[in-house]
User: Which sequence fits this backbone?
C-alpha cells in the first residue's frame, strides 16, 4: 500500500514536472501543417552573438517567405556529438531542409549523410563538410579566405609592406576543427610576410578569463610582441582587454573574428584596429532563402545564380552559394553596422 | 592518531610550499621576467576567485559534503550582474547589483543546503543537478546575446586597485583570514570539523549538524557571489559560458591542498598553497617557451602534476592492512 | 532484505517516471514513440549506458571514477592512430580497448596500492588522460575508417542497431555478475563496510584493481563504438561524459556512499535521462531546456522519494 501511494505521488510529481516543462517552453514549435516548409538551422554553438545574429536574419527571411517554419537550435556547449544527435532527430521527424554549420565536418557529415538517405535536403552554411554530405553550401568565406584575411589585416595594421615582429594566436581549443583549419591557412599566409614570426598558438578553452591571462603572459614573456590573433569568439575580447589593461593599446595589436557590436568599444579606443567578419544577418537570411528555394525546386544543381529576397541575385559557383565578401570593420566604418 | 594526521597535514603544507618555491624559482631562473612584480600580481589576480571559492569549498568538504554547482552558480550570478547593471537592460546602480548578487548567491547556496539537509538528498546529487539546471537557466536568461556595456562602477569591482592592489586580491586575503578565523576560533569551525569527522558523534554532542551543513552551503554561495563580483567585471564581456569547469578547478585545489575528501581534517592554508601552485603551471609552461608541440602536452602535464602532488606524501606513507602508517625506507626521511 | 526492498522500491519509482515521460511523449507527439524512431535514437545513449554499468560497480564499492570520459577519448585516439599507422582495424580496436584497460589499471593501482582516495586519483587522471590523447594526436581528428568497421556503429539487423545489441549484452553481463557471482557480492560487501569485508576475507586491493580495470576497459570499448558511430577519433570526443554517467548511476538509485544500488536501477536511470533528453530536444528544439529538465528530474525525483519515504515511516 505504502509503495502504491508512493508511486502515485511520484507519478503526480512527474506529471506536474512534464506540464511545467511544457509551460516553460513558450517557443514550442507546433508540428507543421502540410504545405509549410520546415527548415532547421543548426549553429556550431548556440548562445554566441555571431549565431544569434545569423538566426535573426534567418527569421527575417522566414517571415518574408511566409510559408517557412524555422527551427533554430544547436548545442549550447558546441559539442559536435550533440549537434549530430539533433540532425538525427530532425531527420527522423521528417523536416524538409536541414542547414548545418558543422563544428566538426566528419562527425556532422556522418549524420548529414544519414539524413540525406532519408530524403531530407541538406545544405551547409557558415562552414562546410564533405561535398557528398550536402547539396549546396552557403559560403560567406572559405577557411582559406578567413585565414588570409586575418593575417592581411594584422599586416596592414602593423603598418608597412613588410611588417616586422612577433605575433601569437589565441585559439578556442586545441581540437577545434574550424580554428585549426584557419590556423593552417594563417600559417600559409604568414609566409608572405617573412619578418612576422608566429611565436605561439595557445588554447583558451572558450574561456574569456583564460584568454585574458594568456595574453597577459604572452606580453610579459615576450615584451617585443607586436600582435595577437584572438580567433575564438571569447578569446578576442579577452585578449583585447588584457592589452588595454596593460596600457599596451596601439603597441600590441589585437585582431580576430567578431560581430562589430561586441568589439565596438575596443575599435574606438584603438586597442583593435580591424575586426574581420561578414554580414552575419545576411548570412542567415541567405541560408533560409537557399533552403527554401531548394525545397520548392527553384534551386537546382548546375544553376549559376538565384534570387534571394532583398539580397537580389546571388552568384553560385559549382555548389557554393556566395554571400559576398569578407568585411573588415575599422574605426571609420564600424558605426555603419548594427549587428 | 591525531599526531599522525597533524604530521601528515604539516607535511602536505611543506610539500606544497616546496613545490611552489621550486616551480617559481626554477622558471624565474630560466626567465627573470617571471619574478617581476607585475607577474606576481597577475598570478595572484588569477588565483583570487579560486582562493575565494576554495575557502568555502574547504569548509564544505570538511563537513564531508561537496558542491559541484559553484561553476554554474558563477555563470548565473555573472549573468545577473550583467542583466541588473547594463544600462540597456535594468541599469540598476552598482550598490544594488552587489547586494542582489550576494543575496542571490546566499539564496542559491541555501537552497543547496536545504535540499541536502531537509530533503536528505546527497550533496553530490543536489549540486550535480543544480550544475545542469543553473547552466540551462543562464543560457535562457542570456538568450544568445552578450552583455558588453557594463557601467564603469561595476567594472571597478574587477579592475579597481584601492591602495595599489587589485580589489580581488584584497578580497581573497580577507576571505582567507575570515575563513581561518571561523575554522579555528569560532564554535562554528569546531562544529564543521566535528560534523565532518563523525556526524553522529557530533549530533550526540549537541552540534546542530543540519544547521552547520546549511551554513557551509550558504557560505559557498556567498563566496561564489563575492568571487564572481570581483573577477567577472575584470573582463568586458558577460557571456553564458562563464564559470564552466570552475568547480573542478576549485575542488582540485582543495584536495591537492590536503583536505580529506571524506571530511574532518584539512584546512584553508593547504587550499591556498595548492591554488597558487596550480595557477603557476600554465604560465610557467608559457614562459619556458617549449614550442608549439609542447602546447599540446600542457593538459597532460597539468594532470601529471596534480597526480604527483597528491601522491608524493603517499610514497612514504603506505598504510598497512590494519590501518597504521608504515614508513617505507626508500621513500626517505621522516 | 530491507536494503533490497528499498532498492526495489526506487526502481519502481524510476519505472513510473519513465512511464510518465513516455506517456507524455506519446500523447504530445506519437511519431516520437514509433518503434523505428526509438530504435534509431537509442544509439545516442549506447556509450552512456555501457560506461554507466562498470561505474555502477565502482560506486557500489564506495569509489568513483571521474576519468572514464578521458580513458574513452585516449582509447579512441590510440585506435585511430594505430589504424592510421597501418594496423588492421580489428587489431587497432583491440589496442584501443587495451588502452582503456591500462588507464583503469593505473587508476586502480593508485587507489588500491597507494591508497589515495579514488576521487583524487581520477580527478588527476581526468586531466592527464585527455591531455595524453591531445598530446599524442596533436588535437587532430582521425577519420576514414573502413565501412565494415563503421557498421558496428551504424549497421542494424532487423532495425535493431548493432551497438544497441552490444549494450544489451553488456547490461546482461553486468546484471548477472552483480546478482549471481561472488565478485558481485564482494562489490556490495566492500561498499557496505570495507573493514568488515576485509575481515571476511575479501581481497580488497585485488577487487579494486579489477573494478577500475573493468571501468577503463569498458570505457575503451565505448570509445571504439563511438568512433564507429561518428567516424571520427579525436581527443575531445564526448566532453564531460563522466558527469552524465555519474548522474545516470545516482539517478538509478546507487548510493554514492556505496553498498546500495543495482544494475537495473542504472539502466532505468540511463533510460530516463535518454528519453527526457531526446523528447525535449524532439519537441521543443531548445538545447538549454534539456539541461534544466534533466537537472530538475535528478533532484526532484530523489527529493520526492525521500519525502514520501519519510512520511510513510
Assistant:
Amino acid at each position: 500500500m505504502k509503495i502504491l501511494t508512493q508511486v502515485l505521488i511520484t507519478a503526480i510529481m512527474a506529471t506536474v514536472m512534464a506540464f511545467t516543462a511544457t509551460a516553460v517552453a513558450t517557443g514550442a514549435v507546433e508540428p507543421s501543417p502540410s504545405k509549410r516548409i520546415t527548415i532547421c538551422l543548426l549553429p556550431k554553438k548556440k548562445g554566441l552573438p555571431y549565431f544569434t545574429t545569423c538566426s535573426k536574419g534567418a527569421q527575417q527571411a522566414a517571415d518574408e517567405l511566409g510559408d517557412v517554419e524555422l527551427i533554430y537550435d544547436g548545442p549550447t556547449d558546441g559539442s559536435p556529438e550533440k549537434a549530430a544527435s539533433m540532425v538525427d532527430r530532425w531527420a527522423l521527424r521528417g523536416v524538409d531542409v536541414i542547414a548545418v554549420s558543422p563544428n566538426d565536418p566528419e562527425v556532422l557529415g556522418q549524420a548529414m549523410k544519414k539524413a540525406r538517405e532519408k530524403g531530407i535536403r541538406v545544405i551547409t552554411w557558415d562552414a562546410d563538410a564533405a561535398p557528398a554530405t550536402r547539396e549546396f553550401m552557403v559560403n560567406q568565406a572559405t577557411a582559406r579566405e578567413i585565414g588570409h584575411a586575418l593575417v592581411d589585416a594584422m599586416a596592414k595594421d602593423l603598418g608597412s609592406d613588410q611588417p616586422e615582429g612577433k605575433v601569437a594566436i589565441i585559439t578556442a581549443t586545441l581540437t577545434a576543427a574550424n580554428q585549426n583549419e584557419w590556423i593552417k591557412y594563417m600559417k600559409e599566409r604568414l609566409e608572405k610576410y617573412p619578418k612576422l614570426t608566429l611565436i605561439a598558438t595557445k588554447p583558451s578553452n572558450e574561456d574569456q578569463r583564460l584568454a585574458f591571462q594568456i595574453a597577459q603572459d604572452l606580453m610579459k614573456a615576450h615584451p617585443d610582441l607586436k600582435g595577437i590573433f584572438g580567433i575564438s569568439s571569447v578569446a578576442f575580447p579577452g585578449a583585447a582587454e588584457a592589452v588595454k589593461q596593460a596600457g599596451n593599446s596601439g603597441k600590441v595589436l589585437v585582431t580576430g573574428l567578431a560581430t562589430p557590436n561586441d568589439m565596438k568599444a575596443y575599435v574606438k579606443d584603438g586597442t583593435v584596429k580591424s575586426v574581420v567578419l561578414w554580414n552575419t544577418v545576411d548570412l542567415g537570411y541567405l541560408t533560409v532563402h537557399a533552403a527554401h528555394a531548394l525545397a520548392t525546386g527553384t534551386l537546382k544543381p548546375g544553376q549559376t545564380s538565384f534570387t534571394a529576397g532583398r539580397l537580389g541575385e546571388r552568384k553560385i559557383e559549382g555548389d557554393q552559394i556566395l554571400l559576398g565578401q569578407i568585411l573588415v570593420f575599422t574605426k571609420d566604418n564600424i558605426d555603419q553596422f548594427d549587428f | 592518531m591525531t599526531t599522525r594526521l597533524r604530521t601528515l597535514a604539516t607535511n602536505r603544507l611543506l610539500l606544497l610550499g616546496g613545490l611552489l618555491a621550486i616551480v617559481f624559482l626554477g622558471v624565474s631562473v630560466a626567465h627573470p621576467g617571471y619574478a617581476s612584480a607585475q607577474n606576481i600580481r597577475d598570478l595572484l589576480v588569477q588565483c583570487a576567485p579560486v582562493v575565494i571559492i576554495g575557502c568555502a569549498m574547504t569548509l564544505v568538504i570538511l563537513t564531508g559534503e561537496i558542491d559541484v554547482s559553484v561553476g554554474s552558480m558563477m555563470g548565473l550570478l555573472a549573468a545577473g550582474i550583467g542583466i541588473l547593471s547594463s544600462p540597456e537592460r535594468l541599469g540598476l546602480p552598482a550598490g544594488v547589483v552587489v547586494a542582489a548578487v550576494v543575496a542571490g548567491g546566499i539564496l542559491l547556496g541555501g537552497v543547496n543546503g536545504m535540499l541536502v539537509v531537509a530533503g536528505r538528498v546527497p550533496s553530490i546529487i543536489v549540486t550535480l543537478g543544480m550544475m545542469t539546471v543553473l547552466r540551462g537557466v543562464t543560457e535562457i536568461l542570456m538568450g544568445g546575446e552578450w552583455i558588453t556595456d557594463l557601467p564603469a562602477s561595476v567594472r571597478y569591482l574587477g579592475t579597481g586597485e584601492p591602495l595599489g592592489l587589485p580589489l580581488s586580491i584584497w578580497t581573497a586575503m580577507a576571505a582567507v583570514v575570515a575563513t581561518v578565523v571561523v575554522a579555528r576560533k569560532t564554535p562554528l569551525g569546531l562544529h564543521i570539523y566535528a560534523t565532518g569527522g563523525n556526524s553522529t558523534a557530533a549530533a550526540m554532542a549537541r552540534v546542530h549538524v543540519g544547521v552547520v551543513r546549511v551554513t557551509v552551503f550558504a557560505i559557498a554561495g556567498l563566496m561564489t557571489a563575492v568571487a564572481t563580483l570581483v573577477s567577472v567585471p575584470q573582463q568586458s564581456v558577460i557571456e553564458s559560458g562563464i564559470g564552466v569547469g570552475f568547480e573542478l578547478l576549485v575542488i582540485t585545489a582543495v584536495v591537492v591542498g590536503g583536505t580529506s575528501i571524506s571530511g574532518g581534517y584539512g584546512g584553508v592554508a593547504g587550499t591556498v598553497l595548492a591554488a597558487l601552485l596550480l595557477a603557476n603551471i600554465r604560465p610557467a609552461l608559457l614562459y619556458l617557451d617549449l614550442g608549439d608541440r609542447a602546447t599540446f602536452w600542457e593538459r597532460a602535464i597539468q594532470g601529471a602534476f596534480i597526480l604527483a602532488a597528491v601522491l608524493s606524501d603517499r610514497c612514504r606513507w603506505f598504510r598497512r592492512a590494519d590501518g597504521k602508517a608504515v614508513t617505507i625506507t626508500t621513500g626517505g626521511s621522516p | 532484505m530491507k536494503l533490497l526492498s528499498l532498492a526495489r522500491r526506487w526502481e519502481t519509482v524510476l519505472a513510473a517516471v519513465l512511464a510518465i515521460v513516455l506517456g507524455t511523449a506519446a500523447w504530445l507527439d506519437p511519431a516520437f514513440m514509433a518503434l523505428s524512431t526509438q530504435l534509431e535514437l537509442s544509439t545516442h545513449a549506447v556509450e552512456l549506458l555501457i560506461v554507466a554499468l562498470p561505474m555502477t560497480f565502482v560506486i557500489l564499492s564506495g569509489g568513483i571514477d571521474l576519468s572514464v570520459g578521458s580513458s574513452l577519448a585516449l582509447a579512441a585516439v590510440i585506435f585511430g592512430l594505430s589504424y592510421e599507422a597501418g594496423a588492421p582495424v580489428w587489431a587497432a580496436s583491440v589496442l584501443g580497448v587495451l588502452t582503456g584497460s591500462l588507464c583503469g589499471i593505473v587508476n586502480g593501482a593508485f587507489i588500491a596500492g597507494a591508497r589515495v582516495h579514488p576521487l583524487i586519483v581520477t580527478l588527476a587522471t581526468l586531466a592527464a588522460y585527455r591531455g595524453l590523447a591531445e598530446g599524442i594526436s596533436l588535437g587532430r581528428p582521425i577519420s576514414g575508417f573502413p565501412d565494415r568497421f563503421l557498421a558496428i556503429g551504424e549497421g542494424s539487423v532487423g532495425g535493431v542497431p548493432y551497438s544497441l545489441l552490444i549494450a544489451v549484452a553488456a547490461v546482461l553481463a553486468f546484471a548477472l555478475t552483480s546478482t549471481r557471482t561472488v565478485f558481485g557480492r564482494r562489490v556490495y560487501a566492500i561498499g557496505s563496510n570495507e573493514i568488515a569485508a576485509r575481515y571476511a576475507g575479501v581481497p580488497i586491493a585485488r577487487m579494486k584493481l579489477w573494478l577500475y580495470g573493468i571501468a577503463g576497459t569498458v570505457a575503451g570499448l565505448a570509445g571504439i563504438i563511438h568512433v564507429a558511430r561518428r567516424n571520427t577519433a579525436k581527443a575531445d570526443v564526448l566532453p564531460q561524459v563522466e558527469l552524465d554517467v555519474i548522474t545516470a548511476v545516482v539517478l538509478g538509485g546507487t548510493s554514492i556512499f556505496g553498498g546500495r544500488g543495482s544494475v537495473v536501477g542504472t539502466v532505468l536511470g540511463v533510460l530516463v535521462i535518454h528519453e527526457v533528453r531526446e523528447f525535449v530536444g524532439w519537441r521543443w528544439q531548445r538545447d538549454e531546456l534539456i539541461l534544466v529538465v534533466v537537472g530538475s528530474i535528478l533532484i526532484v525525483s530523489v527529493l520526492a522519494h525521500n519525502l514520501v519515504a519519510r512520511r510513510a515511516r
Remarks:
- The longest strand of chain A covers residues 196-203.
- Residues 1-33 of chain A have pLDDT under 50 and may be disordered.
